[in-house]
Description:
Blueprint: E1 33-37, H1 46-54, E2 61-64, H2 71-87, E3 91-95, H3 98-104, E4 108-111, H4 118-125, E5 130-134, H5 139-147, E6 152-156, H6 172-181, E7 186-189, H7 198-203, E8 207-210, H8 212-215, H9 221-226, H10 229-234
Parallel strand pairs: 1-2, 1-8, 2-3, 3-4, 4-5, 5-6, 6-7, 7-8
Amino acid sequence: MNPLPDDDDDDDALALDPAFADRFEPQFRPPCQLYLISPPVIDDGFGAKLIAALDAGPVAAFQLRLKGIDEHRIAALAAPLVDICRAREVAFIMNDSIGLAKRVGADGVHLGQEDGDPRDARAQLGRTAQIGVTCHDSRHLAMEAGERGADYVAFGAFYPSGTKTVEHHAEPALLGWWTTVFETPCVAIGGITADNAAPLVAAGADFLAVSGAVWGHPDGPAAGVRAFAGVLGAA
């Protein structure tokens, strides 16, 4: 990453040209991949659903995101899910907590803006850990995360979400700008379905973070994963 200029705080106040990326020769990036996020509530039987989803098609990562319950309970729920992911070479990412990520042997941690510094996560989890940072719709926060050693930045929400309240709305042009200027992968998140994902893939998303579209699919999580095969394959 390049050093941050002094006026980066002003960058988000400037409108981003939707055609910014079109002015540059496209650089090679691996095809867009699926990044699953757990439902907001799970039980001890969730492992069977995770197995069905991961066996239905390529998935790069699974993030355990549980709010409002005891950390001991989260750790207990995580243990079999870590094994399921590891057996399938899917990265297991713990949401929010560096301590929990270390405790359960996660492959990495995803940090919100109030959840800690990527540099601390690196020190505690090691050089091979995958560290992601929520950057909402902010170019400045994304550049700052990259400077601090994040392995990926997450932008969103791109669409209304049924799993969390949307406070920040990002436009696809943000993905094009990021992937034109920086090599660090970016994740698109927020209300993404197989029907609305294509513009995000076309704009340059390296990963699609998906939750409700998979776990709430009327035909089950396996069908939810398979539904994305077309849009990811087209990319």
